[in-house]
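B., you asked whether I could sanity-check this one before it goes into the benchmark set. Here's the sequence:
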Amino acid sequence: MKLVIKGGRVINPGKNMDSVCDILIENGKIAAMGADLPLDGCQVYDAAGLIVTPGLIDMHVHLREPGLEAKEDIVSGTQAAAAGGFTTIACMPNTKPVVDSAVLVAGIQQRAAAEGIVNVKVIGALSKGQEGKELSEIGDMIGRGAAAISDDGTYVSSAGLMKTALEYTGMFDRVIISHAEDESLVSDGYMHEGAVSAVLGMRGRPAVAEEIIVARDIMLAEYTGSPVHIAHMSAKGAVELVRQAKKRGLPVTAEVTPHHLSLTDEVVRTFDTATKVNPPLRSEEHRQALIAGLQDGTIDAIATDHAPHAFEEKDREYRYAPSGFTGMETAVGVTLTALYHTGSLNLMDIIARLTVNPARILRLEAGVLDIGREADIAVIDPDLVWTVDSGAFYTRGKMTPFEGRELRGKTVATLVKGNFVMRKGEILA
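And here's what the prediction gave me:
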């Protein structure tokens, strides 16, 4: 079957392309791109007035499988990804058991190939059991296809272990993703340490806890020459540290989440546990610093940190509720509302941070529309106004701080290997 996506505004940052054109898809791959392509014998998808982009890439997702399927599994997680326009996702290793061996990497890949509806990449654990004591089977995991290495969910407390891990991953041209929060400074806190936490009488997680680890890991990246990526950056000082590292040409990249770009600690005044996340939602000063970091290229990627929990886990006193919430199905709407419709960032720069940039960091053959490449595509209506209703989510984790909020911008179709997996909010695969 031949398919033509006709008349959309194609935004393709990897080719510096922003123009109205058609895309011909044949046998799951892009066969042609141009104006007024012949339509004979083709199925036609009318994309007039819509944005056509490479399939979005979420480099920071918690699929929870194996062992935590009550929160999420590969089926529900990949459906949520498709609903959000993501055609490739990278899942973190803090499962039960922890993904710290080649066997577990292979198992997730096999299950995802059989049951998932988008491309799933696996991130292997840095340390065995994520205990921060002994390196995991890094080489074997990369040999089986692990896209990156991380102990996300906790930080690597030992600078020596992090140094050794960087030396090791550097040999394989893979990145370590750093969860930068010094546990000794945040262990008792459950929101940003600042004016709001003082008023509420809640213990805080100070920004300096993030900044200390970012500084350490930048220094180790410089010493080893190996790349490090800072996950879910939230602190003003961390942005400046990465900015200066890049000016010195160091192999350091960073990501930010849609929720840190759009929300502040003011929403915690509701005591809604859907607002509890690590690192925490910080003050407006930090939020503005994150936007500035996107504007000047300091921050490379936008990633959701999609971290679903079962409702009963979050439905408790704030201090006892687990941190994290679902993110993939709201990501486009939140990002466009917070950045594009405020004039903070243009569409080319936003799409780059959701496609080609995360692909580059993870060394993926994805994130670019080009002849001969697999037709992984997202179609976005940047002006569609909609209200977040978690009851319509495909993820098992229904908690979101955006519940009931009006957003502007939504993915209306997602294609994986040339096949529609989502149209108008409905999963088809």
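One thing to flag: The radius of gyration is 20 Å. Otherwise nothing jumped out at me.
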